[in-house]
């Protein structure tokens, strides 16, 4: 595995973290950080289930969830720049409320991901801001927590309404959820082009705040609906949305289809095409290659994607004949039924 640029910068400065009790937030590749554990106590925290599963192989203590943990004895915090400014602000606010004043915070990130601007956000929660290193097209910043802050997740939540036909649902979103606080164009197109026949068991892959899966449950109340996402923030938001609308669904974290069990009559998805800030089509491609194993004979995959992406050929190769159910200038809704082998 190629070492990430931010990890290289952290290792260049590992003397700063020697003989400390460290909390590391948002690191995706910890295999190369075994040197830290030699003379420091390291706890890794992430909100990506894919990262969590990978980090467990590092031999270090790893935690997964939507909320930054309060770890006893921490005297240094390393924060890898997350995918959004809102998420960074939310993490910093939690750190300021849960850790002592003057606890050093190290923020590392790529220039292309906006580390220069992010350093100003660090300055809103830290004093003594300084740039320690600039290498590998990355920067490493240090500050000391002001401390004494207050944090309530409810203050960071957004609530919004999505109406499809005559069904209006209230959705909850928090920083880190795709299209935080709103409905994206692709999901809207898919919501207005659902199948006519009610499935017995249906899966919402990449559920976000839960808009698709919850509308499926509202449309087909007798159906068993499962919803998954790789993001702990999305899983939390979807669970809150389900409770708010009093809809009984199962929501859980999964790296792709890793945690999925059993067969489904239908799988719906507006699949992600980013990992962090980087474009990544591998998640959708893996879904198309693997989903047939989780479909009943004749079961359907129905997904929305950018119109320019070459998914129909892949769908036909691994599932069955691909139909374009709806289209706009930007998006297509594809549907394919699992072929029954004679």
Structure, described:
α2 links the parallel β1 and β2. This protein folds into two domains: 145 residues, Rossmann fold (3-Layer(aba) Sandwich), CATH 3.40.50.150; 181 residues, 3-Layer(aba) Sandwich (Rossmann fold). The model has no long low-confidence stretch (mean pLDDT 92). It has 342 residues and is an alpha/beta fold. The protein is elongated. Helix content is 27%, strand content 32%. α4 runs parallel beside α5 and α9 packs parallel to α10. The strands form four sheets. A seven-stranded mixed beta sheet has the order 3-2-1-4-5-7-6, with helices on both faces.
* CATH level 1 class label of the largest domain: Alpha Beta
Order of helices and strands: HEHEHEEHEHEEEEHEHEHEEEEHEHEE
CATH-level-4 superfamily name of the largest domain: Vaccinia Virus protein VP39
SS content category: alpha/beta
**Cα end-to-end separation:** 42 Å
Return the average pLDDT rounded to an integer. Answer: 92
Based on DSSP secondary structure assignment, what is the total number of beta strands? 18
Rg, rounded, reads 22 Å
Percentage of residues assigned to helices: 25-40%
Q: Which spans of ≥5 residues are poorly predicted at pLDDT below 50?
A: none
Question: Per DSSP, what share of the residues sits in E-state strands of 2 or more residues?
Answer: 25-35%
User: What characteristic shape results from the CA principal axes?
Assistant: elongated
From the 3D structure, determine the CATH topology of the largest domain. Answer: Rossmann fold
Largest beta-sheet characterization: 7 strands, mixed
Number of helices: 10
How many separate domains?
A: 2
User: What is the CATH-assigned architecture of the largest domain?
Assistant: 3-Layer(aba) Sandwich
Trace the largest sheet across and list its strands.
3-2-1-4-5-7-6
